[in-house]
Specification:
Helices cover 32% and strands 20% of the residues. By secondary structure, the chain is an alpha/beta fold. It has one domain (3-251): Rossmann fold (3-Layer(aba) Sandwich). Strands 1, 2, 3, 4, 5, 6, 7 and 8 form an 8-stranded mixed sheet that branches. The model is unreliable at 2-8, 13-27, 214-232, 241-247 and 252-270 (pLDDT under 50).
């Protein structure tokens, strides 16, 4: 990527990351206050969405544990991890909801949209259909997510430059049309992964805490979600004392086999 393109991306990301910008819908409503967790960290729910095989799980693993696995395992339903970070000296617990991209899971994963604070909408830079399907994913976000959500558009697998079929300019143009931030990332090398999550979290923090939020609980404000997903969210948010300061994970798929710390099983609830 040449320096001119990098400068353009940086300028657009700065504009997208401004507390007064974000999505068009987000400008039309007063933002919800972020929920304060039991340990004094604001809870931020980030959903990974996009077609299957775009590298959503790999991005989460790179950000959460700074690792990359060459073993491909399709996400079944929804996987959950959390990571505590400090954003401008404010502790925030990022709940990372890694959703399956297959059509057969769409009704399940879209039920988590109603409680989201932000979205990472991913596509594969080497897969044109995954880019074309961004429009459909954005439509789902606009119709099923709270209107104050922040979104980043993420073109993943930038390390495979020789196989690229979606240009940087195309990604930037689409992000501009939706008024969202744009990042090109590589889960393999780690390029821009942390920056993307931190920028999204900073945008949320500035608008939801610095400008519009009071820190009071927002639990129960958005109830138009599937009952099972509400139970899962309730469990995660009300068992914070069981979660240490490191990352934690639980699988919320169709069948058993969840990973991570031992806790009451959620694997068969959906």
């Amino acid at each position: 990527m040449n320096s001119k393109v990098s400068e353009n991306m940086s300028a657009r990301n700065r504009r997208g990351g401004n507390a007064d910008s974000g999505t068009t819908n987000a400008q039309q409503v007063e933002p919800r206050p972020l929920q304060m967790g039991a340990k004094g960290a604001y809870i931020v729910r980030l959903l990974m969405v996009g077609d299957s095989s775009c590298g959503k799980t790999s991005l989460v693993l790179r950000f959460d544990q700074n690792v990359f696995s060459t073993k491909f395992v399709t996400t079944i339903g929804v996987d959950y991890r959390d990571k505590v970070v400090k954003i401008e000296n404010t502790p925030m617990r990022l709940q990372l909801w890694d959703t399956a991209g297959q059509e057969r899971f769409r009704s399940l994963t879209s039920n988590f949209f109603g409680r989201a604070d932000g979205f990472v909408l991913c596509y594969d830079l080497t897969n044109r259909p995954s880019f074309d399907h961004v429009i459909g994913w954005m439509r789902d976000i606009k119709t099923k997510a709270p209107p104050d959500c922040d979104i980043v558009l993420c073109g993943n697998k930038s390390d495979l430059d020789q196989d690229r079929v979606v240009s940087t300019e195309e990604g930037m143009q689409l992000a501009d049309e939706y008024g969202v931030q744009y990042f090109e990332t590589s889960a393999l090398t780690g390029a821009n992964v942390e920056s993307m999550f931190i920028n999204l979290s900073t945008t949320i923090k500035r608008r939801r805490i610095d400008v519009g939020g009071s820190g009071k609980s927002s639990f129960g404000i958005y109830t138009d979600v599937f009952y099972c997903s509400d139970l899962i969210l309730f469990y995660v948010e009300n068992n914070e004392n069981d979660l240490n300061t490191n990352s934690n994970t639980v699988n919320l798929g169709e069948s058993g086999g969840g990973a991570g710390n031992s806790r009451p099983s959620l694997n068969n609830c959906c």
